[in-house]
Design brief:
Blueprint (H helix, E strand, L loop, with lengths): L8 E3 L6 E3 L7 H30 L27 E8 L3 E8 L13 E8 L5 E10 L1
Antiparallel strand pairs: 1-2, 3-4, 4-5, 5-6
């Protein structure tokens, strides 16, 4: 047994007995096992990500917009004559709302092709703000 110095011994607060201070020793095998476990955890997350995200993303119907901007000269950028949208139906829930929107008149295509009918979903983040809005279904 190694000889201990007087500085290694201190009185215990709770009793009159003395406790020996020991420095923690790090086992290189425990560090290696932590690294391996963390790597396996990351590998599992990486492997499961497409399955989890694929299930979430499959619920969203995507339609190509077809309005790739080539230059500003292609579209008028003038919205003064644009009709806007009318609200067809509104469904409100505890977490947000869903609305059916229809173009109120002829399309003006100021910034690209106007969408004639669409469904938009808004999810509340709190009582006064919302997280995101997304287009669920579009028709030209």
């Amino acid at each position: 047994m190694a000889t201990r110095k007087k500085s290694d011994i201190r009185p215990s607060i709770n009793t009159n007995r003395y406790q020996v201070l020991s420095t923690p020793r790090y086992d290189r095998f425990s560090s290696l096992s932590l690294i391996i476990m963390f790597s396996l955890f990351l590998g599992t997350l990486y492997a499961l990500a497409p399955a989890v995200l694929g299930g979430l993303l499959s619920n969203i119907q995507r339609a190509p917009l077809g309005n790739e901007l080539t230059s500003n000269a292609t579209y008028s950028m003038n919205v003064t004559g644009c009709p806007g949208y009318t609200l067809g139906s509104l469904q409100e829930s505890v977490i947000g709302l869903t609305a059916q929107l229809s173009l109120a008149g002829p399309a003006c295509n100021a910034f690209g092709l106007d969408i004639s009918d669409l469904t938009i979903e808004i999810t509340y983040q709190s009582q006064s703000t919302y997280i995101a809005s997304r287009v669920l279904c579009m028709q030209y």
